User: Fold these one by one.
Assistant:
Number 1:
Amino acid sequence: MSKSKSKSLERYKTRKLLEELAEKKGYGTELISLYIPQGKQISDVSNYLKQEYGTATNIKSKTTQKNVQSAIVTIQQKLKIIPQSLIDEYSIVIFAGAIPQNGGPGTERMEIYPIVPPEPINIYMYRCASEFVLDPLRETLLEKDSYGLIAMDRSEAIIGELRGSHLEIHHRLTSGVHGKHRAGGQSQRRYERVIEQQVHEFFVRVGEYASQIYLGIPDFKGLFVGGPGPTKEDFVNKDYLDYRVKEKLLGTSDLSYSGEQGLKELISKIEPKISDVRYVEEKKLVQRFLRHLAKETGRAIYGEKEVREYLEQGAVAILLLSEALDIIRVTISCESCGHIREKTIHEKELAALNDSLASEECPQCSSSLFSVSETKKLIEDLAEIAENVGARVEVISAETEEGAELWNAFKGIAGILRYTPS
Ligand SMILES: [Zn+2]
């Protein structure tokens, strides 16, 4: 339960663990969730658990009672090896319970998950339920700051939001105005007046939608509006936006495009102002790798084999791993004779592997106790090597164009070396 140095890796691990824990259900109300805030005395928690152990004797179902009590004991044992100094510095969450292992009653195995959450959770909570209580942990993964983005001209507008690594497109609107002028004196002027009226009505609609969306976001930090020509100024300078949204206008940008392409262009224009937003960080990290590749500096590496080799030599400065990477290493072992086999598979193939192993025998001793004993995600495997040699680890989402390229063109594994290899 060490504190990982890479924030993106920690968040990734927590996200994956949450997915796993959400699947786990107990037969009775016997899964324990324990949230310990920073600074809490471990002895207080232990005393509390001792009381709960006693209270559990009132549980009617003997199986549930036994499972609750052994979960409590498992947690108490874990608490004994957690130093007070760790809790003085971090908050801690422990999930424990008897989890059925692909089978009916009687197949339960005691599982315990102690976690240092990526952001402190300062609540004290003990819950015993048929599922783990995950919401407080889930909330720590929500990126707090949100920025509004509007890319528009007289014919179309896109209302977007950037939060963490995620770009959300809330709304697309079109005006029906194409800006083409027809020739001809009197009717030309009348035609222009009609167009101006249409544009005005379009701005009203854009303003209403944008205001409604942005006012509904509790952590709304600011708004950027961009587009070709003077349209965006016409829009922001008049009262099309609710004053509370308008107050949060952080800037306008000249763009070559409107629509979705304009939205992407707007993000690259305002990058220096939102450089701490994860979306921008991820773009820049992959761009750095791509620049080394284009300039043939020899410092850009990719693919599992090459990256692993350089990692082990301690030559990697930054390791880039796509969050989409779904490969796991599986250890299959025989409980009877100790025979071991390793396999690399896709995450989604694990269930099928478990099923097929259920009817397979150990090739060495023919025992049927031949099953998956350990699984390790390739991301965690590589990240572990990286952290041991002091390489920086960045888990990159596929939300940006660059992140998608890391996944599609480089199979999700790339790195930048500290120096050009000789
Ligand atoms: Zn065997």
Number 2:
Amino acid sequence: MKNRLVDYFISLVKIDSESKNELAMAERMRDDLMKMGAQVIFDDAHARTKGNIGNLIARFPGKVEKKPLLFCAHLDTVKPGKGIKPVIKNGKIFSDGTTILGTDDKSGIAEIVEAIRRLQEEHFDYAPIEVLLTISEEIGLLGAKNLDYSLLNAKVGYALDSHRIGSATIQAPSLNVIEIKVIGKEAHSGACPERGINAIELAAEAISKLKLGRIDKETTANIGKINGGVANNIIPNIVSLSGEVRSHSEEKLEKVTNEIIRTFEETAQKYQINLDGKVYKAKVDIKVDRDFPAMKIDSNEQIVQIALKAAKNINIEPKVEISGGGSDANIFYSKGIKVPILGTGMRDVHTLDENISIEDLENGTRWIMEIIKEYSKM
Ligand SMILES: [Zn+2]
């Protein structure tokens, strides 16, 4: 049986597009979207992200007077994503087991494109639509962070980049990455231990005082990496650690981050020695990077309600969700663009078992069509 949607999805996953190498995929999408009547432009984000093509922005003129509706997805995939050979088994599409499938996020792209194609074939009078396909989402939301926002006119829309069809993610936490360097003083551990300041000991004491893991319903903290020491007979003078704090509340994010900084600084003050009339003090260098800001869209917002109503219209159970991770949508939110993240049917993403059912591809497409119809009729 010939199925345009399935054939299209399969043709897209066969195009290699690991992060920073999205050129072939971007050119394919430019050609396809232009054939459908869109104006397509690229920004120059790749000049800053060191990729081989920028973000793609496509504009479909509307057939009714309305503000444009945005649909976003990302062009890149995680590794191993080269030479993907899709296989259909029992109504589901898998890779051959040696690579990921790339349904994250090509299911989103295929569903957006097929939905618009079908609406055009139905001669439906839709609102103006903008399609934004970003680069290098998987390696730190680089495309979204470096996007030329002057090229976007839409202020609301959807990112197709989640799992279950019918679910709309409307909240996601902010994330701080914390890098800590503890500096002690080196000395021979057998001959003159009193001349050293043990950075490992200091780090261990500070960590033992931290509250890690789940802090509360909205907040988590983790020390994820630690590195230090040279040899058993040397008192170590440097330990590097890194960790993160996530929270749905900016206030709590700041509070927990500051707590970690304060604990290291206070612990370091206890570590000092007096040598030959000179005082040696331990030091801590701490760097905090805001990786992404929180997203908090109210479930009563029209853009959320449209997605839920559209799901109901096609007999799919609607659901709002809160995520523990960040995505392009966090960055858009900080720029004043509200995009709930919708499920596309992708499963077991970022693994060799990644898959999607043909039924979900179809339902995802129908959901997007219904959303555009609801929005356009409003
Ligand atoms: Zn994704």
